[in-house]
Structures are given as structure tokens and as C-alpha cells.
Design a protein that fits this description.
Layout lengths: L6 E5 L4 H12 L3 E6 L2 H9 L4 E5 L5 H11 L4 E4 L14 H24 L5 E6 L12 H20 L5 E8 L5 H14 L3 H9 L10 H10 L12 E4 L5
Parallel strand pairs: 1-2, 1-4, 2-3, 4-5, 5-6, 6-7
């Protein structure tokens, strides 16, 4: 069985890996609903494929997430992809910074998965797009790393609760990806170190033992695999897509 005819909801679907996931699942025959806070990028992605529709929603707000699922209708695959990244030395990380990272990256996944699971009747897949920061620490990204570690704990706990149902819960943990978020990281490195763009990008590429940025298409392929026959035993996992980085 393929994803053809299944309905997929993807948060953070207007840019980066979210947009790539939307196109990947639509091309595979799924009906795709994308969500995010900015109507413009969402509408641009939706306009690119007849199988994609857009709903404006804020994953940090319980009422907004509930409204999103009402508008989306029954969905069998929920991909919690919405996220944000900020960097600062731990000693200069403010409570506001900390709360902002947890709100989007962890509470957003909690609210999305809780609403998604509540409406699943039978087969289902819950997939979080986390990060290698959920598997290890990164200097100058303590709040971000803590939020992504939280996602892994959430995934593993839910997986045990649904293990006897035809539902799996997993997290994909890419390294630095070729996305707008990484472009912002490059700009931050340039500002703080004085490196030019090529040197700043190379610094991120070197984190991957393969010496490159991960492509969004690799995350799409992994997400599709988790929905295919033969993946039923993959449950409660944090799957690194990082060229060997751990």
C-alpha cells in the first residue's frame, strides 16, 4: 500500500523541509494539508500542486491547532515539522529565548501530535522533524538542543502508548540542511565571526562527515519510507539523517 489517497497534514509547510515534504507526498499521490503562521509562503506552495491546500495556524496555540484539524478533516499521517532555531551562549540565553524555543519546537509538536492522535481511527503515522540536536549537544544552542531532546522523549513515550495499535511515532533528525534556516545560521556566523559566506557555509558543511549539507529530499524519502509497508516495526526512533554525525 502506498500513500496514494491518504491525507497528510504537515506543519511548517510553507518553506524548507516542510515545503519539500508537501511536494514529495503530493507527488506520491497523497492529499496534503500544509499549515503555518505566514499565509504568503503557504499559498505559494499550495498553488504549486493541485493536491496541496493551505491552512493558517499557530502550533503554539491550543485553539489554533484544534481549528487546524477541524479544517483539515480526518488525517492519517501527521508530520510535525514547524520549528525555529536561535543561537546564543548559554549565559546570555534569556528566559524569553528559552520559552520561544520550547513553544515552537516542543509544545508545538505536543499539541500537533495530541490533536492528530485523537482523530486517528485505525492506521496512522506521527512523524516529527527534529534535528541531530535532539541526539547530541551543540555549543551556543542550548535552548534549541533542549527543545529537540524533548521531542525525542515525547516521541519515545507516545510510541510505547500506541505500540499495540496500527500507529507508529518517530522522529527524523537531520543535520544542517540546505534550507532557509541554515541560510540564517550562515548569516549569523558571518556577523559574529567576520567570515565570508563561503567560509561560514563550509563551517556547517564540515559538521557532516560527508562534508555537505543534507538535502530536504533526503528527509522526504525517509518520511515516505515510514509510511510504507515494511516500516511497521520502526517505532519510537530518532533517525539521524546526517552522514554519520552523532
Amino acid at each position: 500500500m502506498s500513500v496514494a489517497g491518504r491525507r497528510v497534514l504537515i506543519t511548517g509547510g510553507g518553506t524548507g523541509s516542510g515545503a519539500a515534504l508537501a511536494h514529495g507526498f503530493a507527488e506520491a499521490g497523497a492529499e496534503v494539508v500544509i499549515a503555518g503562521r505566514r499565509p504568503g509562503p503557504l499559498e505559494a506552495v499550495a498553488a504549486s500542486h493541485d493536491a496541496i491546500t493551505a491552512v493558517t495556524a499557530d502550533v503554539t496555540r491550543e485553539n489554533s491547532v484544534a481549528a487546524l484539524f477541524r479544517q483539515a478533516g480526518p488525517v492519517e499521517i501527521v508530520i510535525a515539522n514547524a520549528g525555529a532555531a536561535e543561537s546564543a551562549p548559554f549565559a546570555r540565553t534569556t528566559l524569553e529565548d528559552w520559552n520561544a524555543m520550547l513553544a515552537v519546537n516542543l509544545t508545538g509538536v505536543f499539541l500537533t501530535f495530541r490533536a492528530g492522535l485523537a482523530q486517528m481511527d485505525g492506521w496512522g503515522r506521527l512523524i516529527a522533524v527534529a534535528s541531530t540536536a535532539g541526539l547530541k549537544g551543540y555549543a551556543y544552542a542550548s535552548a534549541y538542543a533542549a527543545s529537540k531532546h524533548g521531542v525525542l522523549g515525547l516521541v519515545r513515550s507516545i510510541a510505547l502508548e500506541v505500540a499495540r495499535r496500527d500507529i507508529t511515532v518517530n522522529a527524523l533528525c537531520p543535520g544542517f540542511m540546505e534550507t532557509e534556516m541554515t541560510d540564517r545560521s550562515v548569516a549569523t556566523i558571518m556577523e559574529r565571526t567576520g567570515k565570508d559566506r563561503a567560509a561560514a557555509r563550509a563551517a556547517l558543511e564540515r559538521v557532516n562527515p560527508q562534508g555537505r549539507l543534507i538535502q530536504p529530499s533526503e528527509v522526504v524519502a525517509a518520511a515516505l519510507w515510514l509510511t510504507m509497508p515494511g516500516s511497521e516495526g520502526i517505532n519510537g526512533q530518532g533517525i539521524a539523517i546526517a552522514g554519520g554525525e552523532l
